[in-house]
Write a structure and sequence with these properties.
152 residues; mainly alpha; 84% helix
Amino acid sequence: MIVPPFLAFTWVVIAALVVWGGRPERMAGALFGLLHLATPAIDHLAVGQVRWAVAITSLLTFGGLLRLALRGDRWWLVFAAGCQLLALSTHIISLLQIDSLIWTAVTLRWISWGGVLACALFGLWEGRAVDRLRRSARGADDDANALCENTG
């Protein structure tokens, strides 16, 4: 079964974002953690085939990622918000009540969540690389200033 390893991988990515990420990554990790804690608790709330509570959490997650993307300087959040928008759009299939497409929607949600996780891992690497580059640039500036002072 694919769900337990996928869920474990999700929690590993969330932990990595919180432990090693910058502020945007930690906030996204907290958002993902809340999403994964809330979803099982509200999964039973449905009208017919429409799991409206899960759709609302998907909408809130998209909104949170979009807000982080627009307020921050991390490009990965834009791509993660796009993947989350894809997951959000699959809830329309439930509204149309086409039984033959339900597993298609579920599969698309899994794939789009995999895209969010891939963006998050790449974003975690990018954030750490940017911090290293900034530190090395500051160190190079300090070395250049010291060299100018010694020669003058």
